[in-house]
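Predict the 3D structure for this chain.
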Amino acid sequence: MKIGVPKEIKNNESRVGMTPAGVLELTRAGHEVSIQSGAGDGSGFFDEDYRKAGARILGTIEEIYRESQMIVKVKEPLPEEYPMIRENQVVFTYFHFASNETLTQAMIDSGAICIAYETVEDPDGSLPLLTPMSEVAGRMAIQQGARYLEKPVKGRGVLLGGVPGVAPGKVLVLGAGTVGIQAAKMAAGLGAHVTILDVNMKRLRYVNDVMPSHVVTEFSNEYNIRRHIKTHDLIIGGVLLKGAKAPNLITRDMLKEMRPGTVMVDVAVDQGGCMETTHPTTHEDPVYIIDDVVHYAVANMPGAVPHTSTVALTNVTLPYILRIANKGWEKACLEDDGLRKGLNIAGGEVLYKEIAATFATAV
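Done. Predicted structure below.
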């Protein structure tokens, strides 16, 4: 199969869809891999690295799309890419369709085969291709939140870990999934007091078992959320509904109950956000303030640490890429229930029910 890896064009997105190690595995399996020149520069992988691994280097993104049967990316195609995507071409990437009706319609119109990393499942229901980026984003949420708590950037002026004689900062984590647990781990490591909320008691029991005593768990409901936002300095939103738009757990009126300089980091923003007042921002302009509350809502947080993120992503996507390349997308999806759940749109039809429900599209 002819596989193409374009350079990402999203604002400050320095990740790339495949490492040279991934290219080597694919070329050894008899496949042809084309990399757009400079695609890996931001992640520390250069054209010569890819050439040595057996890749062809093409000069433009148009060539990559034109000559490839399967496109392997990191982020969703942007409007400039829509006309390049053609019927029956496989596009394997993060799509997050439920938060983007324009993208959904464009992919329906293209007739392409859209397989979304974020809805591929393991037999236990976990999301193997979303997990590593959720791990990165959860850890980064604390790094960024700690930074924006500083007074020069309009935060409360709180050091999360405190110092002797001064109480540590307080972190509220919404969701005890991968993002939430990684965020709690990082915040706890800094010495912050952490409260993590979830509706899944099994997850809360797990957190309670593995986290230190200054990480406490509570059941998530509006009453508890409203109680805690009044006293916590940093709020992390890490709620996920598979393939669907995230629920708004922090509503606009709640901002009035927070202390000035409170920081909210909405890691769920690429799925529509779990905070009513968040909208996607970029690494170039990551924050904005509403009612004296600092909002950080970068939709591609792991793009700020592209080397780590690219290696972590290729580790998990490569087996699926090989499967699709070796067998073709139809047979690969037929034989693998988990991969089939990643099949969101094919031949002009929406095949994932949560996306169809979001836009009232017939499945």
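DSSP finds twelve helices and 15 strands in the chain.
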